[in-house]
Design brief:
The protein is of the alpha/beta class and 442 residues long. It folds into 2 domains: 4-199, NAD(P)-binding Rossmann-like Domain (Rossmann fold, 3-Layer(aba) Sandwich); 303-437, NAD(P)-binding Rossmann-like Domain (Rossmann fold, 3-Layer(aba) Sandwich), CATH 3.40.50.720. The chain has helices at 12-23, 35-42, 53-62, 72-78, 100-109, 129-140, 161-166, 183-190, 192-196, 206-237, 241-249, 270-283, 291-314, 342-352, 365-371, 381-385, 398-401, 405-408, 426-431; strands at residues 4-8, 27-31, 66-69, 81-84, 117-121, 147-151, 171-175, 201-205, 323-327, 356-360, 376-377, 390-393, 416-419, 435-437. Strand 10, helix 15 and strand 11 (376-377) form a beta-alpha-beta unit. The longest helix is centred in the middle third of the chain and has 32 residues, at 206-237. The protein is globular. The N and C termini lie far apart (58 Å). The structure holds uridine-5'-diphosphate-xylopyranose. The site of uridine-5'-diphosphate-xylopyranose (UDX) has 20 residues, from helix 10. Uridine-5'-diphosphate-xylopyranose is lined by residues 154-158, 217, 220, 224, 258-260, 262, 264-267, 269-270, 331-332.
Length: 442
């Protein structure tokens, strides 16, 4: 059955969710306070890079199932299922999450809800937020207890957002045991096609649903910092962390995924989510339980400074007056997202130490320029490498992994390559006369 729904927030999460819900046959209204985003999306243009999303968006706009607006009144009138997909960034100068956007959606929407409605929160929030928003919605809405808030965390990865939304590993729904009336059955209608193909559906209380999301991200971050810590030991001992990861990854209990050593995790989720998790645990008096996440964060940040040190050493002890080619700016491949990107962070630090940095990324140039306007930007791999003393690969885009030493050998000043993602074949580069340095590798 087709439902009428509104999706608040049209960033990576909301825009993808809106398009995917329309793809499932629902009638969807995407809502954003940013009129320029609404205009772009309405014309079938995705304001960020996400493989497959633009086709999905255009197809569903043409079919008439998907529209966008800035009007909350229109959304309240149109839909009886509402998804909350706005951001929860880190507060400035604090670890905690900034809930301004989440709160303001409910504060603005609830007074306009005159008929029964379910608000499904998808944003990553500190545990306890959903219950608080539920109380706020009941109080502010003329429909009172007929408006309920449930939590339906989103686990999508950028770069695979469409696939992760239409074929998630699992669906999690947190409902308020005291007030819930219809959230579960509405969710079963929303996701009927997914449930039909057997996607696991876990229904729980609000707090558990909120914690599932942050725990999943904390686990992933820990896995990456674990292998990066082992990489440090490998470097000290002259061992190879890539082979080590392959070997321990064969154990099904461990698994090979998320065991790639490198310059560490970044992006709009993992770094801020582990910090918000620590802050919230502290408020709840359970701070001791998560002190290990401080170490996870510290190991991750150390990768960035040690990469800068390695580059400096490669240049003979000083970066002053050197030319460094930085290949990759996005926090990971298949994305144009540069939020807390380790690659850009490293590029910035190297420049601050006196080097001329030339950055190239297949998709993230515009976002990088906006965030770090003072870095040098190149138009291609070759342009970035022109006259370089060191070539650094900091995001493992396929274009960089496919690079052959001969492609750039004649244009660089010195043949030094630093592989911050362990994604290049060291033997190929070394046998072509380059020095090759990876992370945790001989
Ligand atoms: C993450 C979670 O995976 C997703 O479930 C959640 O909904 C949002 O946060 P995302 O931020 O898109 O998704 O990126 P992810 O693929 O998890 O990568 C995070 C970072 O870890 C990237 O910077 C990536 O380069 C790094 N990473 C990943 C490693 O350094 N090593 C690895 O082995 C894997």
């Amino acid at each position: 059955m087709s439902l009428r729904m509104a999706v608040f927030g049209t960033g990576y999460l909301g825009a993808t969710h809106a398009a995917c819900m329309a793809e499932l046959g629902h009638e969807v209204l995407g809502v954003d306070v940013d009129a320029s985003k609404v205009a772009k999306l309405s014309s079938g243009e995705v304001p960020f890079y996400e493989p497959g999303l633009e086709e999905l968006l255009q197809r569903n706009i043409s079919s008439g199932r998907l529209r966008f607006t800035s009007s909350y009144a229109e959304a309240a009138e149109f839909a009886d299922v509402h998804f909350l997909g706005v951001g929860t960034p880190q507060k400035k100068g604090e670890f905690a999450a900034d809930l301004t956007y989440v709160d303001s959606v409910v504060a603005e929407l609830a007074p306009l809800l005159t008929k029964p409605a379910v608000i499904f929160g998808k944003s990553t929030v500190p545990v306890g937020t959903a219950a608080r928003l539920g109380a706020m919605a009941r109080e502010l809405s003329p429909a009172g207890d007929d408006v309920e808030v449930a939590w339906n965390p989103e686990f999508l990865r950028e770069g695979y957002a469409v696939q992760d939304t239409l074929r998630p590993d699992r669906l999690v729904l947190g409902v308020d045991e005291t007030y819930s009336r219809r959230a579960r059955e509405v969710a079963e209608e929303v996701y009927a096609d997914l449930l039909e193909v057997g996607i696991p559906f876990l229904v729980t209380d609000l707090a558990t649903a909120e914690l599932v999301k942050v725990s999943a991200n904390a686990f992933l971050a820990t896995k990456i910092s674990f292998i990066n810590a082992i990489a440090e030991v490998c470097e000290a001992a002259g061992a190879d962390v890539s082979v080590l990861a392959d070997a321990i990854g064969h154990d099904e209990r461990i698994g090979r995924k998320f065991l790639n050593a490198g310059i560490g995790f970044g992006g709009g989720c993992l770094p801020k989510d582990i910090r918000a998790f620590m802050a919230r645990a502290g408020e709840l008096g359970a701070d001791q339980a998560l002190t290990f996440l401080r170490e996870v964060d510290a190991i991750n940040m150390r990768r960035r400074t040690s990469m800068v040190e390695l580059t400096k050493d490669t240049c003979g002890g000083s970066l002053l007056g050197r030319r460094i080619a930085v290949l990759g700016a996005a926090f990971k491949p298949n994305s144009d997202d540069v939020r807390d990107s380790p690659a850009l962070n490293i590029a910035g630090q190297i420049q601050l130490q006196g080097a001329a940095v030339n950055v190239y990324d297949p998709k993230a140039m515009e976002n990088s320029r906006r965030l770090f306007p003072t870095l040098g930007y190149a138009t291609s791999v070759r342009d970035a490498c022109e006259g370089a003393d060191v070539v650094m690969v900091l995001t493992e885009w396929k274009e960089f992994r496919d690079l052959a030493p001969d492609d750039i050998a004649t244009i660089v000043r010195e043949k030094h390559i630093i592989d911050g993602r362990n994604c290049m074949d060291s033997r190929v580069w070394r046998s072509a006369g380059w020095t090759y340095q990876g992370v945790g590798r001989k």
